[in-house]
Design a protein that fits this description.
heterodimer; A: 560 residues; 4-stranded antiparallel β-sheet; 37% strand; disordered N terminus; B: Serine Threonine Protein Phosphatase 5, Tetratricopeptide repeat; Serine Threonine Protein Phosphatase 5, Tetratricopeptide repeat; 3 domains
């Protein structure tokens, strides 16, 4: 009897197990996020260089970000890749340049760097795009090691270098994030310029461990304050770092994002520091800032440890009406998710939410709180890759080339690492830095572009199969800045209410998201879209159809 | 004080308190080291030999303001370090060949690879050692370190639990388990483990701080606050605890206290950062490599010596002393070897060298005292033992040795009795009771002597010496 029962149970198990596996697989297929690697098909031939020639200068490790923005106003997002430049001791036959790729649709891109005139040969680290002169097209600011560059968009597919006349070269510093914001609500965009440590060839600090050469860290160099430029409204800027309060705080700036974290109607500044306390500059509404990182709970992780902070994004991951921050860090640290409790205090909820899952062994960089599956909550993408190209030689628990990480929001305030099940795009093993996200092919879901150190980029097409709805909103400022940078949008569809803001500069020293994309799940109608413009003006639109691209113009509502 | 601390740390490592045990609590520090300033600070053109020459040691010590900045010079440094590492590997490889079936050489090889960041090779040797003797805590602790680096917290916990199976009272293990459980978001289980840690290490500021963090994760802010307060009471420089206090006081609405703690946090954090920066500047990759190799040689020498190969032990110890001239553990081992070989003068020279380094080390003082007794230099011996008592007043060794000295030379007999009593008070062992008994006899206290030897016999009933002595005193009384 025992034998028979055993056989019988085994037989039953043999049937049940495949059924369960099938059910699980089906569930995955239905709701899974699938990101396909389409890099080779896109026509993008850009190869990143970090300027290295064996000296191991610290700047090589932190290079670089990239941007997704619509430079030619044709309605799709183009790609601007940043590049390094040969550092002292490095010989090249042809200097590498940044590269602009025009989106021709259907995941085809054309290199238009030369004709656009944006092939800066500086050592580029950070970038932001914004219409700083409110003339109807997006300009580019590049934060370099060395003088920075402002390219004004001429509106005809070409750009002009207006750095000198605008007064934003920012000296010979090592750059980091660049962000535009309207800090004083005067209708034009001001410029925050992040600075990394004080590095020169003269103070270069060669390092080794166990006789193996390695890159130095930020603590080997003096820190320095960031810079803030007020837009004078006439194409020029004035450095207001001291009077704004920004210059009072030295750090080792990395990624940043500007956002109204306390819902008081003005834009605040979040800038991370590498192995130091991260800053949160609270705006008093007039462009004067107070650094409140420590008291708000955002300076350190939950244990009071400074992180090797890299990139940051903000978004309302739990749809409670407050913008939260997600940020990346060094290896042997997890990424961090800070829940915004009430606009004053944040709580590190990484462990409780699973938002650090899989990240501990890796150095993490570009990131985005992005709704990849259009289910109405924000998932998290994390770009990974060690700074030490020879890490295996002195710590073979780590690797230089590594897969990126995708954390899916399960809708109940938790995240699950779905990297292994999310398509071949998540199996690419490179050393990633900047990462940007937008709907590149206009099919209603968010794709991704990742800059990889010393290699080709990775371009990921979102091939998730689901029937979820979405809406994509472009803002047009009239009294306020033309792209609505800093404007807050609230989309309500049935039981789902989501907020987002337009940011210029985010992730790891990168730029994306001038259009706001909201996943709506199965909801077939949007009840209400509310736009709060910088300065307090409000537009409300009701009964909006899903699955469409909208332009909302300040004071006019939906416009063609 | 700093040198003394350094000496004690080096000694602890050499005594087999594996450096790996410190990895988790100070994980951040280690990682900063790994990613941070590892500056080879050797003047350009400094000759560098694989098995470094003693006369050149001074020039390879950290030199402020100098750094090897050219690729060519870096190449020399790399080659020099590679030579030290190759020689170290050769020595351990031979050790393994000389003692097949013995797990200790395998553990030394594992430790060598671990210190080089080669987890793959290290794991192979630790696992081989564990096959021979599954109860080796160092191997489990080292393997747990690799698990942690790969975020495999659950497996790391398994290793620490294995250590506890072998040594239920082992310090730190429950602390590690608690911290890993926090990383696994299991705060309630973490508290359970950390409270066990507090039982074996009652003065662990770190453990109380972690308990505070666990309660904070559970949103039990009053309990979190209590534990954070206990943590800073033990260590007023614990920045993590101040951060926790700042956070929970904010949660509890006590804004004034939160502000006060935030100021303490800022102060302590800034000081710690400056210290860390200073450490980074001082870091010397060549010397650190030599120090690690020296440690390997000391361990290898101990194995050879224990197995009767004094000559090889001496060679290795001399090699270690050349690589790391200030390695007190190495010098003591060498002095002890000379003393037992009857080479008292050589032993004395080494103790003089330790003294010259302005290092105060308990074992050095005790050994030097014993050597002075051998040489009938009683005044030197007396001074050394007194210094040992001053250095480690909670250790019975100094009291015991000084009492024995006075009884031997029949001096300060009353004090000798007091010293023996103190040794007994600190450690109730048969040997201490036997010493007290002898001191009582010498002071004419027959009843005391009988009582003390009776206790010694109670502790070691099979000891014939004590039995004979007991019978004798009883007859005398």
């Amino acid at each position: 009897m025992i034998g028979r029962a055993f056989v019988s149970n085994r037989g039953r198990a043999a049937v049940v197990v495949p059924m369960l596996l099938c059910a699980l697989a089906c569930a995955r297929t239905d709701g899974a996020i699938v990101l396909s690697n389409v890099t080779k098909e896109t026509g993008v031939t850009f190869i990143h260089t970090d300027g290295s020639g064996g000296q191991r200068y610290i700047v090589e490790t932190v290079c670089a970000g990239l941007a997704l923005f619509d430079y030619d106003n044709d309605g799709d997002e183009d790609i601007y890749f940043l590049n390094g430049a040969p550092l002292k001791g490095t010989k090249v036959s042809k200097p590498p340049t940044n590269a602009l790729y025009r989106n021709d649709g259907n995941f085809k891109f054309t290199d238009v760097t030369k004709e656009a005139g944006v092939g800066d040969t500086g050592f580029a680290l950070g970038v932001a795009a914004a219409d700083y002169d409110n003339d109807g097209d997006l300009d580019i600011y590049i934060n370099n090691y060395g003088p920075n560059v402002l390219y004004r968009n001429n509106g005809d597919g070409t750009f002009s270098d207006v750095t000198a006349e605008a007064g934003v070269a920012n000296g010979d510093k090592v750059g980091a994030a660049a962000m535009f914001l309207d800090m004083d609500k005067d209708g034009d965009l001001d410029l925050f310029v992040g600075n990394y440590v004080i590095f020169t060839y003269e103070n270069h600090s060669p390092q080794s461990t166990n006789g193996i050469p390695m890159y130095a860290g930020p603590m080997d160099y003096p820190s320095r304050p960031n810079d803030l430029y007020r837009n004078n409204g006439d194409g020029t800027f004035t450095n207001v770092s001291i009077e704004s309060g920004i210059a009072a705080h030295k750090g080792s700036g990395m990624g940043g994002v500007c956002a109204d974290y306390d819902n008081d109607g003005d834009t605040d500044i979040r800038i991370l520091n590498d192995v130091d306390s991260d800053f949160l500059f609270e705006n008093d509404g007039t462009g004067k800032f107070e650094e409140v990182g420590l008291l708000s709970g955002l300076a350190y992780n939950m244990h009071g440890k400074p992180m090797g902070s890299m990139g940051v994004d903000c978004g309302d991951y739990d749809n409670d009406g407050w913008l939260d921050f997600f940020q990346t860090s060094y290896n042997k640290e997890t990424t961090l998710l800070y829940k915004n409790l009430n606009g004053k205090l944040f709580e590190d909820v990484t462990l409780a939410t699973g938002a650090g899952e899989g990240t501990y062994p890796h150095v993490t960089w570009g990131t985005g709180l992005v709704d990849f599956d259009n289910d109405g909550d924000k998932d998290i993408f994390v770009a990974c890759g060690h700074i030490q190209d020879n890490i295996e030689l002195f710590d073979n628990t780590g690797t230089y080339l590594v897969e990126n990480i995708l954390l899916m929001n399960t809708g109940d305030g938790k995240f699950v690492n779905v990297s292994k099940e999310s398509g071949d795009g998540m199996k690419v093993k490179l050393s990633s830095r900047g990462a940007v996200f937008d709907d590149l092919d206009g099919d209603g879901d968010i794709d991704a572009v990742i800059l990889n150190s010393r290699r080709e980029p990775t371009i990921l097409r979102n091939d998730s199969q689901n029937s979820n709805h979405w809406v994509r909103i472009r803002l047009r400022g009239v009294k306020t800045n033309r792209d609505g940078v800093g404007a807050r949008v609230k989309v309500t569809a049935g039981d789902l209410a989501q907020i987002d803001e337009v940011h210029s500069g985010r992730s790891y020293q990168s730029h994306y998201g001038m259009c706001l994309h909201f996943g709506l799940g199965k909801r077939e109608k949007i009840d209400r879209i509310k736009v709060r413009w910088i300065g307090g003006g409000v537009d409300v639109i009701e009964n909006v159809a899903v699955d469409q691209r909208l332009t909302i113009t300040e004071g006019k509502g939906v416009t063609p | 004080m700093e040198k003394r601390g350094k000496a004690i740390r080096i000694l602890a490592v050499a005594l087999g308190l594996c450096a790996a045990t410190a990895f988790f609590f100070s994980l951040k520090l280690l990682l900063n080291k790994a990613s941070g300033p590892q500056v080879p600070r050797v003047p350009a053109g400094t000759p560098y030999g694989g098995t470094a020459r003693a006369e050149e040691e001074e020039s390879s010590r950290p030199t402020e303001g100098l750094s090897s900045s050219s690729t060519e010079e870096s190449g020399h440094v790399e080659e020099g370090i590679a030579a030290v590492k190759n020689e170290e590997f050769r020595v351990v490889e031979k050790l393994i060949r000389d003692f097949p079936g013995n797990e200790n050489p395998l553990i030394i090889m594992g430790e060598m690879f671990r210190s080089r960041g080669d987890a793959v090779e290290a794991t192979k040797y630790y696992e081989r050692a564990l096959k021979i003797n599954p109860r080796r805590p160092e191997a489990h602790v080292a393997l747990s370190e690799f698990c942690i680096k790969e975020a495999n917290f659950a497996e790391a916990i398994t290793h620490w639990r294995k250590v506890l199976e072998v040594q239920p009272q082992a310090q730190l293990m429950n602390g590690y388990i608690g911290e890993a459980l926090l990383m696994l978001n299991k705060p309630a289980e973490a508290i359970e483990a950390l409270e066990k840690e507090v039982q074996v290490t009652p003065y662990s500021s770190r453990s109380y701080c972690l308990i505070g963090q666990a309660y904070q994760q559970l949103e039990e802010y009053d309990k979190a606050r209590e534990n954070y307060e206990a943590s800073v009471k033990i260590n007023p420089e614990n920045s993590d605890a101040y951060y926790g206090l700042m956070t929970v006081c904010t949660k509890l609405g006590d804004r004034d206290k939160a502000k006060e703690y935030s100021e303490s946090f800022r102060r302590v954090k800034a000081e710690a950062r400056e210290e860390l920066k200073a450490d980074k500047v001082k870091y010397d990759d060549i010397f650190e490599t030599q120090k690690r190799s020296a440690l390997t040689y000391v361990r290898a020498a101990q194995i050879y010596r224990l197995n009767g190969n004094v000559q090889t032990a001496e060679e290795l110890l001399n090699q270690a002393a050349r690589l790391d001239p200030e390695n007190v553990a190495c010098l003591l081992e060498l002095a002890s070897l000379y003393r037992k070989n009857g080479q008292q003068t050589k032993a004395l020279e080494i103790h003089a060298k330790i003294r010259g380094m302005a290092i105060e080390d308990l074992i050095d003082l005790l050994e030097f005292g014993a050597l002075s007794v051998d040489l009938q230099q009683f005044e030197d011996a007396e001074k050394a033992f007194r210094k040992a008592i001053e250095l480690a007043p909670q250790s019975p060794s100094g009291y015991q040795k000084l009492a024995l000295l006075y009884l031997t030379i029949k001096k300060e007999l009353a004090e000798a009795k007091g010293l023996a009593e103190k040794a007994v008070a600190l450690e109730e062992t048969a040997i201490n009771y036997s010493l007290l008994s002898r001191a009582c006899i010498m002071n004419g206290d027959g009843a005391g002597a009988l009582e003390a030897i009776r206790k010694a016999l109670e502790l070691e009933p099979q000891n014939r010496e004590y039995q004979r002595y007991y019978d004798l005193i009883r007859r005398m009384n």
